[in-house]
Each structure stands twice: as structure tokens, then as C-alpha cells.
Write a structure and sequence with these properties.
By secondary structure, the protein is mainly alpha-helical. It has helices at 3-23, 29-51, 60-70, 72-88, 93-115, 117-124, 126-132, 136-143.
Length: 161
């Protein structure tokens, strides 16, 4: 087998391997982190929007915006990762990302409704200040966590590619 044919065979094998994981209903490590990172961002958005109406929370939405601006590059990477995942599974990537973002925000909003606004803000309001102090590596470690009470849309694959 020539070197060219061998390299081509390896590329085909890698594509087959990665596509089988994409179709298997699980996330690789990067996709898992990306969804959880977008979950964090969505949670901070809901906290900022909800708690700005509660006494003492007036500046939280502006702090959320500051967090977003500070971490624009990382959040953009997370979106790009999820768009690639959706494309690899044959979905409309833009619509799927929009649906995911909406679903994540709705989950947090439902929690705020169940708790009542004042209790929600007392419990979660400090997360924006905490998040603002984090660098990208710390945010990434946070996003890599598996949260039993808030699982990702898909489990993490057993293998990483």
C-alpha cells in the first residue's frame, strides 16, 4: 500500500469513527463542555434579567452583559462547537442552536418561577459576580462539570475524539 493510499484510508477511518459518535446520541468532551458553557451563560442571562427587578439586583443585567463581553471569544467557541455538532448530525445548525439556547433559558426561568423571584435572586444572584471574577480556564473547568440536577441534552461519550 502506498503512503498516499494509507493516509487516505486513515482519513476515511477517522471520518467514519467521528460520524458514528455523532450519530450515537452522545457528546464528545468538547461538545459536552460547549453545551454546559452555554447553559452557564443562559443561567446568568436569566438571573440578570429576572433579578434586575428585585431590590438590590438593579445592576445584575449590566454585570451579565459585562461577563458576556469579557468572554465573547469563549462563548463564540462554544457556539461554533455546537453548530458543528448539529451539522454533523444532519440538523439545521442555526435553528438547533437557537432551540438549545431557548431550552436552556426556559429551564432556568422555570426554576425562578417555582422558587418565586425573591428567593431565586437571593439564591442565584451572586453567581454573576462570581462568574465575573473567573478567567477562561476557570469557566471551562466549570463547564466541564457534570451536574446531576441539570444534565446535558446528551451524555458524554465514553471515548474522546
Amino acid at each position: 500500500m502506498t503512503l498516499k493510499a494509507y493516509a487516505f484510508s486513515l482519513i476515511l477511518l477517522a471520518l467514519t469513527f467521528s460520524n458514528s459518535y455523532a450519530a450515537s446520541g452522545c457528546y464528545n468532551a468538547q461538545e459536552f463542555e460547549a453545551e454546559q458553557g452555554l447553559r452557564i451563560h443562559s443561567e446568568l442571562m436569566v438571573i440578570g434579567l429576572t433579578c434586575q427587578k428585585v431590590r438590590g439586583g438593579e445592576g445584575l443585567y449590566n454585570k451579565y452583559r459585562k461577563f458576556t463581553n469579557k468572554n465573547q471569544y469563549l462563548l463564540g467557541q462554544y457556539e461554533t462547537t455546537m453548530l458543528s455538532h448539529f451539522r454533523s448530525t444532519g440538523q439545521d445548525a442555526e435553528a438547533s442552536l437557537h432551540d438549545l439556547r431557548t431550552e436552556l433559558a426556559n429551564e432556568v426561568s422555570q426554576k425562578a418561577i417555582r422558587m418565586n423571584m425573591a428567593a431565586f435572586c437571593r439564591h442565584y444572584g451572586g453567581r454573576i459576580d462570581q462568574a465575573l471574577t473567573m478567567d477562561h480556564d476557570t469557566i471551562r473547568r466549570w463547564a466541564q462539570q457534570e451536574w446531576p440536577t441539570q444534565p446535558a441534552s446528551k451524555p458524554k461519550c465514553n471515548r474522546y475524539y
